[in-house]
Amino acid sequence: xxxxxxxxxxxxxxxxxxxxxxxxxxxxxxxxMITSLRGELSARFEGLDEKFEAKFESMDARFESMDAKFEAKFxxxxxxxxGMDARLDARLGTIDRRLEDLDKEVANLATRFWGxx
Length: 117
Hints:
By secondary structure, the protein is mainly α.
């Protein structure tokens, strides 16, 4: 057969139309599949985002409650330390007064026995 016969050109045209139609269907199918996958992935990522937000919020709440507990404990320890500091100051003041009294008594004894000042 030669290329100038109408049947050959008809077959070439039918083959070209078939190939272009198949290519068009394939491209449209791939486009639909990609759009569907994009929607699925977006939904999954949104779900994960919501889960992470919920987890982070619960962790923030836990840390805030722990922070409040630590603050309360530190405040209680500060109050205890302030009380202990006050008692220690009172005791040291008492010891200081007693040492001053003892120093006066020793000076009086030294003056009485040795006549020195």
